Amino acid sequence: MTTLPTAVIVVNGFGLLFVILNTFALGLKIPFGRLLTHFLAHWQVAVLVLVTNFIVIPLLFIGYVLTIASSIPGQIKVGYCVAALAGGMPFAPLLARVARAHVGVATTLLVALTVGTIIVLPLGLPLAVSAVDANLKVSVWDVAWPLLLFLLVPLVLGCLFRLRWPDLAPHVRRWVEPFAILCLLLNLNFTLYAFWNLFVQTWDTGSYIAAVADPFIGLLCGYLLVSILRVKDVRIRHSAEITTSIRNIMAMLLVVIFPFGAYPLVTVSITVLNTFGLLVVLVFALEWRHALSPASARAKTTSETPPDTAVGPTLAMD
């Protein structure tokens, strides 16, 4: 009888540690001058990324659970509402580096989306929850205080540390980031252990369809976004697509731990969504990296250039 509560405490503990450490590490890497420069230089991309993450994707998700997926459990719907309103994947800069994308733009977009999530999620979630499940109630403050305490405060502290001790910030970040990722992996493993029966039971409800579709919807929205703006720089295109592809794991964990801690299916829904989404976007990032690699570029150039033996006769005929 005590195993499950103990496991849940461990799950929440590692989840909270991940959020605090990862947000602090994000603050350590924010150069305000370059951040503002990137935002102003690519303000159209930034504005459309904000609109896509906080208007387009929430409408798609919430519309889906109210219409096509109206029969899935209410707590699963709530989990998807949490995901819909939480923009800004915390690993965007890391995946941008993997994809050879523009890390500075990815970091700028991530910071903008994180700040937006702190504002939008507390305001929008109570309305979304009441629309999809009348039995669950949550207030603006219930959602806001964990975001302010465990998301905003560590971010500000990381920024202040960087400003006060700029020479130490990179060294501290090299230790903090791996430990944060370790905490996330432990959180995932203990979540699977604590709620395994619920993961299996939920499979038969068709609730995982949205989780499978989520990263593809995000990537498609990102692709349409940069296509509408006619962004030609491939590195900036991929940064926008990566940042839009997955939801904010940190904000979702905080909402799961605090206002919805008594509703395990909410945890199940966002765990599946986050895990599958990260794997899909990692595959895309690796493919983009391969496409932008020097060897791949040389191979493409060679394949598009006719051999010299064919050029001579052609010119002669002209």
CATH class: Mainly Alpha
Overall shape: it is globular
Based on secondary structure, the structural category is: mainly alpha
The SSE order reads HHHHHHHHHHHHHHH
- Unreliable spans are 307-318
Judging by the overall fold, what is the CATH architecture?
Answer: Up-down Bundle
Can you characterise this structure?
The protein has one domain: Na+/H+ antiporter like fold (Up-down Bundle), CATH 1.20.1530.20. It is mostly helical. It contains 15 helices and no strands.
Annotation keywords:
Na+/H+ antiporter like fold, disordered C terminus, mainly alpha, 15 helices, globular, single chain
Could you give the topology of this structure?
Blueprint: H1 3-28, H2 32-41, H3 43-66, H4 74-84, H5 92-98, H6 103-132, H7 140-164, H8 169-194, H9 196-203, H10 209-228, H11 234-245, H12 249-257, H13 264-292, H14 294-304, H15 308-317
Sum this structure up briefly.
This protein is 81% helix and 0% strand. It has 318 residues and is mainly α. It has one domain: Na+/H+ antiporter like fold (Up-down Bundle), CATH 1.20.1530.20.
